[in-house]
Design a protein that fits this description.
Layout (H helix, E strand, L loop, with lengths): L7 E2 L1 H9 L1 H9 L9 E2 L1 H22 L4 H4 L6 H13 L7 E12 L2 E13 L3 E8 L7 H5 L2 H13 L14 E7 L2 E9 L2 H20 L28 E2 L26
Parallel strand pairs: 1-4, 2-8, 5-6
Antiparallel strand pairs: 3-4, 4-5, 6-7
Helix pairs in contact: 1-2, 1-7, 3-5, 7-8
Length: 272
């Protein structure tokens, strides 16, 4: 058995396994630090990552009550200024909702755990629960691509199962949940995904199946598809190319490994 018990599964680790089992093994089991950049030119990629992190922080601080004009002074790059202006003009109207920014939910699943950190959960008790995720993609992904991503599946599923304490103690019904990706570069084109009992059953079945598969995995073979290797830090380790993919060719966001420093006793969860 290679996995530590309990192992904490997140949307990033499940997505890594889905994309390439070898990457999952190297990153989460062997914890291999491989000094390769994901894209070139490196400075463009790093600048975008830093700007994206700062934008998330600015939105979070605005949600907890810091005025937009005080936060605007932090937007000291063209991208940040553009994103912040878009947020001010097109931020969702959440009057009547209770807001939980940068909120973490967790639940046990067999010998392991699942965990998710949300940019924003907006709750109207007994009526609606909306998950917001702020994205700084340079190009807007297609909804079909987002619909099958682990983030979309896991975030909705986990809110249903472990979010009762955010809903005045009442169950959050799948039909009350919606997940919204808000794109800073496309502020009038959010991607919206409603949830349902059928989707919940499908997602929990897939979560359990995937974790059981990882538990039983011995080989952790490389992905047959080599295109994602262009933007993987382990490509040279796996002999899948030494040069990083070009930044201009990259359509999404490379997410760093999530580091959950969590006191699980302080997180509301439901026993399975």
């Amino acid at each position: 058995m290679m996995l530590s018990t309990p192992f904490t599964f997140s949307q990033s680790s499940l997505q890594d396994y889905n994309d390439c089992p070898r990457r999952f093994k190297l990153r989460y089991i062997e914890r291999l630090m491989w000094p390769a950049v994901e894209t070139e030119p490196t400075q463009d990629y790093e600048r975008h990552q830093q700007e994206g992190s700062l934008f998330h922080r600015m939105v979070q601080q605005n949600i907890i009550g810091i005025p937009t004009e005080k936060l605007a002074v932090m937007a000291q790059s063209d991208n940040l200024s553009k994103w912040w202006d878009a947020y001010i003009q097109h931020a969702p109207n959440l009057d009547g909702y209770t807001l939980f920014a940068e909120y973490t939910l967790s639940a046990p699943l067999g010998d392991h755990r699942i965990v998710a950190k949300y940019d924003l959960i907006a709750i109207k008790p007994g009526e609606k629960a909306i998950i917001y995720d702020w994205k700084t993609y340079r190009k807007r992904p297609k909804n079909d691509y987002l619909a099958v991503r682990w983030q979309t599946r896991l975030y909705s599923a986990l809110l249903e199962r472990a979010g009762n304490h955010l809903n005045a103690g009442a169950p959050i019904l799948p039909e009350q949940i919606e997940m919204v990706y808000w794109f800073a570069n496309y502020p009038t084109e959010p991607a919206r995904f409603s949830y349902s009992k059928a989707k919940s059953q499908r997602d929990w079945g897939l979560i359990a199946k995937t974790i059981a598969e990882i538990d039983a995995e011995k080989d952790f073979g490389m992905s047959e598809e080599e295109r994602p290797c262009k933007f993987c830090a382990y490509r040279s380790y796996c002999d899948r190319g030494k040069k990083a993919g070009e930044w201009d060719e990259f359509n999404g966001e490379i997410e760093a490994e999530e580091n959950f420093e969590i006191d699980f006793e302080q997180i509301g969860e439901i026993a399975f």
